[in-house]
Amino acid sequence: RATQWLIAALNSIEPFVMNVALIDLFYAKEEWAKLRRPGAVEFVQRRLAALSKSLDSKPYLDGDRFTAGDLMMTTVLRILKHTDIVTSDKRLAAYIERCTARPAFKRAFADQLAVFEAATT
Questions:
Q1: Whole-prediction pTM value?
Q2: What average pLDDT does the segment 27-56 reach?
Q3: DSSP assigned state of 10
């Protein structure tokens, strides 16, 4: 199940999250982007609503177990941290808070940043 959630994060959520992020971060001043953004947001909100429903009252995607699927899903959801698209859903906001507070998430995030920091020295 952890692998299934990892793949779901990368294939069912991330492409639509990235669509909004690209519009916001690289093309925000373009006329086509201003026209496209509402539809992109609506589509990602539908995906996030399905994710929220799957999460239901469970603390993590696989129930009480924090897995690699949660690491990946949280990382994908954080792409939109410059907006309230994800955090406007209270269940997903609480999920992100729970996941990012975990020592395993903090370690994985620190390891990821270390690669970039090493490349700058």
A1: 0.89
A2: 97
A3: I
